[in-house]
Amino acid sequence: MILSNTEDVPGQEIREFYGIVTGSSVRAKHIGRDFMAGLKNLVGGELTGYTELLQEARQEAIDRMIEQARSTGANAVVNVRFSTSSVAQGAAEIFAYGTAVQVE
Amino acid sequence: MEDPLVQIGAQIIPFFLLMLMGFIVGTTIESNHYREIRKREAQTRHLPTISFRRPPPSWQITSTALVHGNTVVSIDYFKRFLAGLRAITGGRITSYESLLDRARREALLRMKASAIENGFDAIVNVRLETARLANSSRNGQGTAGVEIFAFGTAVKLAS
């Protein structure tokens, strides 16, 4: 599966459109990570635990989007976009969406 | 009966200690991080990172993939206090500016690193996103951090 955030796959042509495909993942931070982040908040800098958490969540959202694209028979997803929202205290939703297409 | 001065001291001293610790550790981390960022930026300069929507038409592209990098950062106790003071008079909050600058450059560097690792020659349509993460303590009002996410389409060129 080819992913791209441009409007087409560079170097290839779009033959067919299959419509929007989406994938999302809602993650909460576990207590250990939250505690460490609380400590880190005193000194500032990168909160590695959260970086990894969101990285995993985003990968899962992408995987779900790919899964959906595969079920439509597409071989690429173009114009992929992401959005993040804090849905509840200590939880974040990562959402990935794009247009499933057939490219050659 | 306790001395009122002792009571006031007991409330103020931990606050100042936290501020001092935040200041010293935070400043050290920041200067180290900037040094590292500059070094890695010099190492990855050979990889063109373009925010144009399409690659230049002259490029012969053989394969593409989505690449991304992210960072979650937060500000230290001392700088948060200074920023609070700054909110009274208004104006630039330099400490937040440098924090976000570091986070963006770090996210871009991670994105570039993953492109280089997989043998790509350039990244086009680079986009940056910023999202605020709510903290679970203090009723979600405290700032846990800000996530910077960089993504783009990596391309391999025919040599």
Describe the protein's topology.
The complex is a heterodimer of chains A (104) and B (159).
Chain A: E1 2-3, E2 14-28, H1 31-43, E3 45-46, H2 48-72, E4 76-88, E5 91-103
Chain B: H1 4-43, E1 61-74, H2 77-89, H3 94-117, E2 122-134, E3 143-157
Antiparallel strand pairs in B: 1-3, 2-3
Helix pairs in contact in B: 1-2, 1-3
Note down, in words, how this protein is organized.
The complex is a heterodimer of chains A (104) and B (159). Chain A is an alpha+beta fold and 104 residues long. In chain A, 37% of the residues lie in helices and 43% in strands. Chain A has one domain (2-103): Hypothetical protein apc22750. Chain B (Translation Initiation Factor IF3). Chain A has helices at residues 31-43, 48-72; strands at 2-3, 14-28, 45-46, 76-88, 91-103. A four-stranded mixed beta sheet of chain A has the order 1-4-5-2. The radius of gyration of chain A is 17 Å and the shape is elongated. With 159 residues, chain B is an alpha+beta fold. Chain B has a single domain, classed as Translation Initiation Factor IF3. In chain B, 48% of the residues lie in helices and 26% in strands. Chain B is built from three helices and three strands. Chain B has helices spanning 4-43, 77-89, 94-117; strands at residues 61-74, 122-134, 143-157. In chain B, helix 1 crosses helix 2 and helix 1 packs parallel to helix 3 (94-117). Chains A and B meet through strand 1, helix 1, strand 3, helix 2 and strand 4 of A and helix 1, strand 1, helix 3, strand 2 and strand 3 of B.
Question: Nutshell version of this structure?
Answer:
Chain A has helices at residues 31-43, 48-72, and strands at 2-3, 14-28, 45-46, 76-88, 91-103. By secondary structure, chain A is of the alpha+beta class.
Keywords, please?
heterodimer, A: 104 residues, alpha+beta, Translation Initiation Factor IF3, 4-stranded mixed beta sheet, 5 strands, 37% helix, 43% strand, elongated, B: 159 residues, 3-stranded antiparallel beta sheet, 3 helices, 48% helix, 26% strand
